[in-house]
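Structure tokens please, single chain.
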Amino acid sequence: MRAHIGTDLLFLPGASGVVLDDADAVLLVRRTDNGEWSLPAGMVDVGEQPAEAALREIYEETGVEARIERLAGVAMHPVMYPNGDRCEVLHVWFRCRAVGGTARVNDDESTDVSWFRVDALPAISGFVRIRIEKALAATDKAWFAPVDARVAELTDPLSL
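Here you go.
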């Protein structure tokens, strides 16, 4: 597709999981493309539900099997990849619990996988931080970007 449209803006559906272990540490991956710590995430495949995509991406990237505890949030987010590709992602994220597997680099999209205590997170983008914050909120309600407010974490074109 990129051969036809170059780096023009694409609209894509994305999903991720804020995965917690038994001690409520958060699972993060260090991305190969930009070296940043992020949540396991990716695009929703045709015919796939966002929840399925989140669980698939978690396993593909980290080797961790997870179950979804609840929908945590939904928001639009611009993405600029290091190669110049631009996307606007409708992103759905879930609060998840690790139920099996071993955290490890499980594909070529990351260089490291690790658990972090919430009070000892590495440097992360605002978009990663807001997803973690909303997933850990003491509510059963999913968060969404407000209609009439600017949310800084959702406006900078950062990676997933």
